[in-house]
């Protein structure tokens, strides 16, 4: 037993020397007064080199890891635990992990005259845990669906998981130890080089998308700096980008089709309010003030207004498709016929969240139909006055278009117009 007291109790000395845990004692000035053989083995420092010396002068790291504060707590009569902490003894080169318990050292009258500490070497336990954790981390990285690679500070691959091997189509043996710029020169001068170098230089995480033309692949990349280099996660987004491009093309085709066919698309919310009045204002020439609070109705022909408003309310209540033809006063002041179709837009819950539709200008058709109907009406009135039995047929089924009164009397019925000859005769 090595102490500054030359009269130790022999039993205590035996326990002191045999203890597998290190035992130290110190006075109120934090000078070591006892140093057990276990401490010599743990630190590589013989008792003679430490006894009488202040602890944090012998081991400067004690202040940095908070153990000086634990020793001072013991001098106040308190117990303190310093949990697993690393140590490195500069004079001997020994390093490891220790767990230390501090307690006050009292004289026979109960006065605190110093402190005592038991030091347990937990290096084996900590390193075993690190190894297990390391194996677990590798297992996790290998089972990841995303690519993972570690780059050292010289841009060399230090680790590559299976997913990354598959993406770059090279075995990790061809990647490890070689630089990313050597393996993928096409990345030089791209956003990948710029962002990776920024992450390494500034110590900040970065993310970007980059194309690898040699692999016909797009990657979404996230890189995180750590002490030895960069941790780089990536995933193949080639299909997602292709799908997005196809969607944009489809939307552009639809937009062009809508513009070419109807020249206006309207939309409303579930209550029927239109958030974007631009298309309606452009068509009708109304001002935003004129449209508010149902004022849009004034652009509808008075004769059509009750009919189309009733149809719109029915569609909103039922959630069915809205279809109607009516006359709208356009920006030039003239009324034109439009065929309007509105389709409900349903949310995830199945409820109607709004409406979208298109008005199609059918004015020329309606005018032509009205002209033909006027001609038929004139023909019917003329035929009705003829003294002969006359009938006018249309189409391959010989549908009666007009008949004279005498013809009605001959066939014995008046409901012949609009019916095929085979049904009437």
Written description of the protein model:
It is a single chain. The chain has 425 residues and is of the alpha+beta class. The protein is 39% helix and 28% strand. The protein is built from 17 helices and 16 strands. The chain is elongated.
Major pleated sheet: 5 strands, antiparallel
Number of strands: 16
Tell me roughly what share of residues is in helical segments: 25-40%
Summed over residues and divided by their number, the pLDDT gives a mean of: 79
Tell me the number of helical segments per DSSP (H or I, 4 or more residues long). Answer: 17
Q: Find the structural class using helix and strand composition.
A: alpha+beta
> Alpha-carbon distance between the termini?
136 Å
Radius of gyration: 47 Å
> Globular, elongated, flat, extended or rod-shaped: what is the shape?
elongated
Content of β-strand = 25-35%
**Stretches with pLDDT under 50, minimum 5 residues:** none
Strand order of the largest sheet: 2-1-5-4-3
């Amino acid at each position: 037993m090595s102490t500054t007291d030359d009269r130790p109790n022999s039993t205590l000395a035996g326990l002191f020397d045999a203890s597998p845990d290190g035992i130290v004692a110190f006075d109120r000035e934090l000078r070591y007064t006892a140093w057990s053989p276990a401490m010599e083995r743990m630190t590589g420092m013989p008792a003679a080199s430490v006894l009488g010396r202040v602890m944090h002068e012998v081991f400067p790291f004690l202040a940095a890891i908070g153990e000086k504060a634990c020793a001072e707590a013991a001098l106040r009569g308190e117990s303190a635990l310093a949990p697993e902490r690393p140590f490195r003894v500069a004079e001997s080169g020994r390093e490891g992990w220790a767990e230390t318990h501090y307690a006050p050292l009292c004289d026979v009258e109960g006065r605190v005259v110093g402190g005592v500490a038991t030091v347990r070497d937990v290096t084996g336990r900590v390193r075993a845990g690190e190894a297990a954790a390391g194996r677990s981390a590798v297992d996790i990285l290998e089972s990841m669906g995303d690519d993972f690679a570690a780059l050292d500070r010289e841009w060399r691959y230090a680790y590559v998981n299976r997913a990354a091997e598959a993406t770059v189509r090279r075995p990790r043996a061809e990647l490890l130890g070689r630089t990313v710029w050597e393996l993928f020169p096409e990345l030089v001068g791209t956003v990948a080089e710029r962002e990776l170098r920024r992450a390494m230089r500034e110590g900040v995480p970065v993310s970007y998308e980059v194309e690898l033309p040699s692999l016909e692949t797009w990657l979404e990349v996230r890189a995180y700096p750590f002490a030895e280099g960069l941790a780089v996660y990536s995933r193949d987004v080639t299909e997602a980008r292709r799908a997005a491009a196809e969607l944009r093309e489809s939307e552009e085709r639809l937009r062009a089709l809508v513009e070419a066919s109807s020249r206006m698309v309207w939309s409303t919310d579930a209550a029927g309010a239109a958030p974007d009045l631009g298309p309606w204002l452009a068509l009708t020439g109304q001002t935003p003030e004129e449209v508010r609070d149902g004022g849009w109705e004034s652009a509808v022909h008075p004769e059509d207004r009750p009919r189309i408003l009733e149809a719109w309310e029915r569609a909103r209540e039922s959630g069915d498709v809205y279809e109607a033809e009516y006359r709208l006063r356009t920006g030039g002041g003239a009324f034109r016929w439009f065929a309007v179709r509105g389709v409900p837009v349903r949310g995830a819950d199945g409820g109607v969240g709004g409406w979208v539709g298109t008005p199609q200008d059918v004015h020329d058709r309606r005018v032509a139909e009205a002209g033909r109907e006027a001609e038929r009406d004139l023909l019917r009135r003329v035929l009705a006055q003829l003294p002969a039995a006359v009938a006018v047929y249309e189409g391959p089924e010989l549908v009666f278009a007009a008949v004279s009164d005498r013809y009605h009397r001959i066939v014995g019925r008046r409901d012949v117009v609009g019916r095929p000859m085979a049904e009437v005769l």
